[in-house]
Design goal:
The structure holds 2 protein chains of 2 kinds. Chain A contains 14 helices and no strands. By secondary structure, chain A is mainly alpha-helical. The longest helix of chain B is centred in the N-terminal third of the chain and has 35 residues. In chain B, helix 3 packs antiparallel against helix 10. The radius of gyration of chain B is 25 Å and the shape is globular. By secondary structure, chain B is mostly helical. The chains are: A mainly alpha, B mainly alpha. At the A-B interface, helix 1, helix 3, helix 4, helix 5 and helix 9 of A face helix 1, helix 3, helix 4, helix 5 and helix 6 of B.
Chain lengths: 306, 308
């Protein structure tokens, strides 16, 4: 008895509901249609941008594998035919590419090490140790971030010339062992401030000195931040052009950037080899990004948001 | 307990003094670097800007002659013009495009990591490779751009070798390489906006536009401001692109300011004159930054701060 009433009532409601549902469905349909239209637009715009970003790079890669005669074809070949893998070997034949590569590795490695080491020592000093004038000096540090490089460029050059360091790697390395860049110090200091000081206090009670505490306790906890500093330092030095241009004179000391530019001056039509050399100069950066993407994102986010 | 104000110059306990010494030791590398590579050079370059210094002979003081010469130097004005055009065109374009891309990526896009990577990749390419790549892409006869234009029956311009198009080419390049980094910063900011704010707009019956206009934009203004300052300062100091691609030519159409400093200092060895040029740039950058900061108080919204 009770059940029928309930079910009747339910049916009535269901009938009413059907019309409402039909209406709801139609508005839902239009809403869904509109939404998927916007989705499509969204993906199309993203795709268009992505094509613009990637096509020049694909073109670079494709040209680097082409035969000397085939780079000038119209319509252009997107897929090289024949594939000239030996372009990459020829680069080593026609210029001291290995030398350039090695020079770049030495400069980048030494500068990076100095930057990571000295920035973390200095940052720890600013974050954890109390000394008179700390606040004022830190403001000075922040202010130096804003100084445009052309202002210090010329006297710094004169200084290195006076020291007899022109045409050596020293001007490209030594400054980075002295502080390692205001921005990196700032970044690392923020990380140290975020660490809880309990472990460090405990170590001090156990009789550890400040440097041991820094090295053994604080430093290992900032590995992610050191990763951020390391990847951006790597990119900065690997991609540097102005520094080597000003300080290095003999081709034997050239980094990749200078070497490739020199080669361009001599062989204006060997685009395939220039492209192959460019691909090889770019490869370490892309690989680093693939391996350490996390650090890149963290670092970039830090610059803008914190 | 009544807080007794400590005398400002209290005597330090031996322990505090020891700690202070340690502090100075820790920041010593930076202090040396500051004196040798920042403070010293700034003072030196200010002095040099009042001298005639051709490297071989010691600098001779000539007062404000360099600055006077500068006003009559057509190339100085040309380099200022080129840099101004470049900065005024690229900065807003980079900011808008990267903001648009970040907005699109923030809409629960599939494969976000992939899109992010694609837009960031041009930032990873070294300046030399970027230059070679664009020299080839913009090659008037065989380059990619003119080849594509030819499909539409258009005879493309000479790009980097054309006085009319060279600066435009460099602006185009800056959009290729300059969108990725601000885009990532925007994206992080967008992801940090609390959903409660959007829900509040929904409760008030606001749609997508209202959310964008009254939540997204105000919440993002500090980040827009940051990107504006960074991109502007960066644009004013562009060097390697023009050096490698055009060398300032044709007919000084792409003579960027820092390129002109470089030429004076390291090709003509007019170190005094180049220092004066550098100081003018310093003052321009400082002035622009102050102006933008002042202007920003009109439109930048900081959370936790009530607007008057």
């Amino acid at each position: 008895m009770r059940r029928t009433i309930l079910s009747e009532a339910g049916e009535g409601r269901a009938l009413e509901g059907a019309a409402a549902q039909k209406y709801a469905r139609s508005t839902e349909w239009s809403a869904r249609l509109r939404r998927s239209f916007w989705r499509a637009v969204q993906y199309l715009v993203l795709l268009a941008g992505a094509v613009v970003m990637l096509v020049p790079l694909v073109w670079l890669l494709s040209s680097s594998f082409k035969d000397q005669g085939h780079i000038f074809l119209f319509p252009p070949q997107w897929i090289p035919n024949p594939w000239r893998l030996d372009n990459y070997l020829k680069v080593f034949d026609q210029m001291p590419f290995l030398r350039y590569y090695w020079n770049t590795i030495v400069v980048t490695g030494a500068a990076l090490l100095g930057q990571v080491a000295s920035a973390s020592v200095v940052a720890y000093g600013f974050a954890r140790i109390r000394f008179p004038g700390r606040g004022a000096l830190f403001m000075v540090l922040l202010a130096t971030i804003m100084i445009p490089y052309p202002v210090t460029l010329i006297p710094t050059f004169i200084l290195f010339r006076y020291l007899g360091w022109l045409d050596t790697f020293a001007p490209l390395i030594v400054p980075y062992w002295l502080g390692g860049g205001a921005f990196f110090i700032f970044l690392l200091r923020q990380f140290y401030l975020r660490l809880s000081p309990e472990l460090e206090d405990a170590a001090r009670i156990d009789g550890a000195n400040t440097f041991t505490i820094f090295l053994r306790i604080a430093l290992p906890q900032t590995k992610p931040a050191l990763g951020v500093v390391a990847v951006f330092s790597f990119l900065g030095h690997w991609n540097d052009f102005l520094g080597p241009l000003i300080y290095l004179n003999t081709p034997d000391n050239y980094t990749l950037a200078l070497g490739i530019n020199l080669f361009r001056g001599f062989h204006t039509t060997q685009w395939n080899l220039l492209m192959a050399a460019s691909v090889m100069a770019t490869l370490p950066c892309i690989l680093l990004f693939a391996v350490a993407q996390r650090y890149f994102i963290q670092g970039i986010v830090f610059t803008g948001v914190k | 307990m009544v807080a007794v104000p400590l005398p400002r110059r209290r005597r330090m306990s031996p322990r505090a003094r020891r700690e202070a010494m340690e502090g100075y030791v820790f920041i010593l590398p930076w202090l040396v670097g500051l004196l040798a590579f920042v403070a010293g050079p700034i003072i030196a370059s200010l002095y040099l800007s009042f001298t005639d210094y051709q490297v071989v002979q010691p600098p001779t003081f000539i007062g404000v002659a360099n600055y006077q010469q500068l006003f009559g130097d057509g190339l100085f004005w040309q380099s200022l013009k080129v840099t101004a055009i470049y900065t005024v065109v690229t900065t807003p374009l980079q900011l808008c495009l990267s903001f648009l891309v970040a907005l699109l990526m923030n809409q629960k896009v599939r494969l976000l990591g992939m899109w992010r990577t694609i837009y960031y990749v041009p930032n990873l390419v070294p300046a030399i490779a970027t230059a070679m790549l664009w020299l080839w892409v913009l090659n008037p006869e065989f380059g990619l751009v003119n080849t594509l234009l030819r499909y539409f029956g258009i005879q493309g311009p000479l790009w980097l070798s054309s006085t009319r198009w060279a600066l435009f080419s460099l602006i185009m390049m800056s959009l290729w390489g300059g969108v990725g980094a601000p885009m990532l910063i925007y994206l992080a900011g967008l992801q940090g906006i609390s959903t409660e704010l959007y829900e509040a707009v929904e409760c008030d019956g606001g749609g997508g536009w209202a959310k964008f206009r009254y939540i997204t934009v105000p919440m993002m203004t500090p980040i827009i401001f940051f990107n504006l300052v960074m991109n502007m300062i960066g644009a004013l100091q562009v060097f390697s692109g023009p050096y490698l691609l055009t060398g300032g030519g044709p007919a000084n159409a792409t003579l960027f300011y820092v390129l002109y400093i470089y030429e004076n200092a390291f090709q003509f060895f007019k170190m005094g004159y180049a220092s004066a040029l550098a100081w003018v740039l310093f003052i321009i950058i400082l002035g622009m930054t102050v102006l933008v900061f002042k202007w920003s108080s009109m439109w930048v919204y900081y959370e936790g701060e009530l607007r008057r």
